[in-house]
Design brief:
298 residues, ten-stranded mixed beta sheet, disordered N terminus
Length: 298
Amino acid sequence: MVRATGMVALLLALPQITGCSSFNYVEADSPTPLVSVPAMSPKPKIALVLGSGGPRGFAHIGVMKVLEEAGIEYDLVVGSSVGSLIGAFWANGYNASQIDEISRQGGPLTVFDFSLFADRGWIHGQRLQNFVNDRLGPQKIEAMPRRFIAVATRIQDKQPVFFNSGNVGVAVRASSAVSKVFSPVGIQGIEYEDGDESLPVAVRAARQAGATFVIAVDVTALPGSAPVDTSDSRLAREARRRARIDPELVDADFVIHPDMGFGTVPTPNFYKHARQSGEDTTQSLLLPLKQAIADKNR
């Protein structure tokens, strides 16, 4: 009985013991956090800003497919959270069809390392970092063939930071570290979390980089689409997110907002629905988008 009681006590203590072990990346290729993005030379002609949204981010792939098929080329991608993951593959030279194929392989277990002992969450995030680096190099963001900025949130003051250099897997991991789900990501002693917590759709980063034309992709639920039985806490969370997104969209030249409904379910059917919504919405907006680009270039 004493031995059994001692074993129970040890098991109960384990989450507290291991949960205190935080992740802190200190290698020479650590991503450098920027509070603003320096102007790029040459200036980006068209920037694509991909927003946060978890499984809803699969709509980004549909958007990119239609833009590519229509011959609309962009030379900078800014990504928050899932947008940073997709943007990293684009920056390494993958096209939308190739990113789509990768997204269909393995599911969440490929990139999520679930654990009861994760630090302040239940997913460590190391597997996501490895997934990116194993497929892309690893390499530094600044060495990739296309220009890319990942957006994260500095936990200590909830301010957005921008990564345009350093280890791409670490940058994507920080950008995607959903609060209370993923463990926070330490970089040189400073902790970061999901870009959604500060700039879900970071149009300002593209503007600071000097982009001539900015296309913003917002994959959050459309305003007013919440069912009548939605909890007050969920409604408040969505309102806070909209308060972070709407001022950014005002500064975009064009906004693409696929309608995927309000609910989000991480299933193959939902991923398919999200991709198709991205395609359908972008296809319906091609003519006004092309006209807006032409007007901007006059």
